[in-house]
Design brief:
Layout: E1 4-7, H1 17-26, E2 32-37, H2 49-58, E3 63-68, H3 76-81, E4 84-90, H4 97-106, E5 110-115, E6 133-137, H5 152-166, E7 171-175, H6 180-189, E8 193-196, H7 198-201, H8 206-214
Parallel strand pairs: 1-8, 2-3, 3-4, 4-5, 5-6, 6-7, 7-8
Bound molecules: D-xylitol-5-phosphate and zinc ion.
Length: about 220
């Protein structure tokens, strides 16, 4: 499978949201990555339901919803009804992770788990077989535009080994500080999905930037 690109709408111009989404629709992006932050799990608040509803109204690409919120199980059905194709919850936010993953799947969405940069990959050992996606945070979650943490490479390698060892099918997504500088290396280590916010939306030609990330061989 060739890798997938998920531009993060957090870095878009919210004054021109429809235009930004139409740009993504026409690009080679595979997903629209949607960052929901509650100011509790992470030290920032992004946006909530009305904005996601507006994104869905214009988007032709599937929404990859990254929930950086405590007790995400309270809102799974809401995010599904707002148009989420994939829902990712943080391992750090879920006491009953297995139950939460099953709930996401029963809603008809694919299910992902995100790990903060310090959270051990081995904590996934008993859940990896149930996951469609693992999102490795390559920055501390909460803000776009942060510097990529280099230690992520060895974490991708470790996660890839765990997936192979267990015969799991989960895709590896990398989120935070992704650019053309680190994308090839991440793919070599086994990444499947690259999230990119500022690198895409701050570039002169976002469509071309997405296409560059997509066409790395
Ligand atoms: C960070 C978010 C990321 C962020 C990525 O908490 O989860 O998805 O939007 O943005 P960049 O690519 O600018 O680091
Ligand atoms: Zn994200």
């Amino acid at each position: 499978m060739s890798h997938l690109i998920a531009p993060s709408i957090l870095a878009a111009d919210f004054g021109n949201l429809q235009r930004e989404i139409e740009m993504l629709n026409k690009s080679e992006a595979d997903y629209i990555h949607v960052d929901v932050m509650d100011g509790v799990l992470v030290p920032n608040i992004s946006f909530g339901m009305p904005v996601i509803e507006a994104i869905t109204r214009h988007a032709t690409k599937p929404l990859d919803v990254h929930l950086m919120i405590v007790q995400p199980e309270r809102y799974l059905a809401t995010f599904q009804s707002l148009g989420a194709a994939n829902i990712t919850v943080h391992l750090e936010a879920c006491t009953h992770l297995h139950r939460t993953i099953q709930e996401i799947k029963s809603l008809g969405c694919t299910a992902g788990v995100a790990l903060n940069p310090h959270t051990s990959i081995q904590l996934l050992k008993d859940i990896i077989g149930d996951l469609d996606m693992v999102c490795l945070m390559s920055v501390n979650p909460g803000f776009g535009g942060q510097k990529f943490i280099e230690h992520t490479y060895s974490r991708v390698e470790e996660l890839k080994a765990l997936i192979i060892e267990t015969g799991a099918t989960a895709k590896i997504e990398i989120d935070g500080g992704v650019s053309i500088q680190n994308a090839s290396q991440l793919l070599e280590y086994g990444a499947d999905i690259l999230v990119a916010g500022n690198f895409v939306f701050s570039s002169k030609n976002p469509t071309e930037t997405i296409n560059k990330l997509k066409n790395i061989v």
